[in-house]
């Protein structure tokens, strides 16, 4: 196996293991076992478990690109785009890695700063879509798009936590319906 | 020190340590060091770290009784009661223990079942208040009180996660304003 292959396997294993068992709930040994590479290989590629955590977060974010792209789908009404976005970021039995890391790793500054950047980017992307809906009259305009967007993003994190506890997608589906009620102009 | 004293000290230490560093981010040694009791004492009182985790969750919930009682404050308009409730469950630099445990410990069935019960009770308490507001015309009635209440509870969890990442109460304060916009009749 090439070195790059080992690195990729460790990264993919880190994503799977940290998402299912939590960052502090799993060790480097769990990651290399899952990856099927020798433990010594880990430190050739990552300077620490925290360094892998940061790359895992970026890989998770990257994997969500398509789910954020729907927010800019031209020809689709803004409320519909938001609903599609939330559907694509819907139920996962392990919850959302961004939410999980927020709960677990806010004490590690490097990870906290990265999470803050991801939230900011995410909220901005939702806000641009909401702003379009405010301009075409389909979305309420009694608050700034940025505030409404923050509420949408925080809500999906909360709903995904709840769905994880229920081990059932119901909470996420009900949340999508509530967000539509919240956002639509009356 | 009496045995009961040791037990209480371990429970209080568990709450402080698990809340700040996470359940998997801290060990029994951290808890007994914080409590100032010998490690041997731990297993005289708790059969496992998970057993302590469950009692810590109950103690945290118990400590929030006053913050939930405001939901039933007679003579106070329902929207105002919800705002007070969310203010009392507001910013904490360590986030909400219910949310943190949801993110971290859903894989431990005993803790997951307890979390599910707590969410259900919490949502019911908010729903009763919302129902009152629907009956007096101050809260929207285009969805069931139970659904609106679930949205409120999930949202505060999401907002507390975000505030923990920001290390700033702003997200929680903006969330309270958004919930008022969401709930009020128009």
Plain-language structure description:
The first copy, chain A, is an all-alpha fold. Chain A contains ten helices and no strands. The first copy, chain A, has helices at 3-21, 28-35, 39-45, 49-63, 65-69, 78-88, 97-105, 109-135, 145-166, 170-183. In chain A, helix 1 packs across helix 4.
Would you summarize the structure shown here?
The structure is a homodimer of 186-residue chains. Chain A is built from 10 helices and no strands.
Indicate the structural class of chain A. Answer: mainly alpha
Low-confidence stretches of chain A: none
The chain pair forming the largest interface, with residue counts per chain, is:
A-B, 46 and 46 residues
Outline the biggest β-sheet of chain A: none
CATH architectural type of the largest domain in chain A: Orthogonal Bundle
Shape of chain A: elongated
Order of helices and strands of chain A: HHHHHHHHHH
CATH topology value of the largest domain in chain A = Tetracycline Repressor, domain 2
CATH class label of the largest domain in chain A = Mainly Alpha
Mean pLDDT of chain A: 96
Helix content percent band of chain A = over 70%
**Strands of chain A, total number:** 0
**Total domain modules of chain A:** 2
Oligomer: homodimer
CA distance, first residue to last residue of chain A: 60 Å
- The amount of beta strand of chain A, in percent, is under 5%
Number of helices of chain A: 10
Rg from Cα of chain A:
18 Å
CATH superfamily (homologous) name of the largest domain in chain A = Tetracycline Repressor, domain 2
């Amino acid at each position: 196996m090439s070195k790059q292959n080992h690195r990729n396997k460790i990264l993919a294993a880190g994503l799977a293991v940290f998402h299912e068992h939590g960052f502090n709930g799993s060790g480097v040994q769990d990651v290399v076992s899952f990856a099927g590479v020798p433990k010594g290989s880990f430190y050739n590629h990552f300077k620490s478990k925290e360094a892998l955590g940061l790359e895992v977060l970026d890989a998770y974010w990257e994997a969500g690109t398509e789910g954020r792209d729907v927010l800019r789908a031209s020809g689709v009404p803004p409320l519909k785009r938001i609903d599609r976005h939330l559907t694509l970021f819907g139920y996962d039995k392990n919850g959302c890695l961004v939410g999980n890391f927020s709960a677990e790793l806010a004490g590690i500054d490097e990870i906290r700063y990265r999470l803050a950047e991801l939230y900011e980017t995410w909220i901005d992307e939702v806000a641009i879509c909401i702003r379009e809906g405010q301009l075409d009259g389909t979305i309420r305009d009694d608050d700034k798009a940025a505030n409404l967007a923050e509420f949408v993003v925080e809500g999906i994190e909360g709903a995904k936590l709840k769905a994880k506890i229920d081990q059932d997608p119901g909470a996420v589906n009900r949340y999508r319906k509530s967000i539509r009620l919240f956002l639509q102009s009356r």
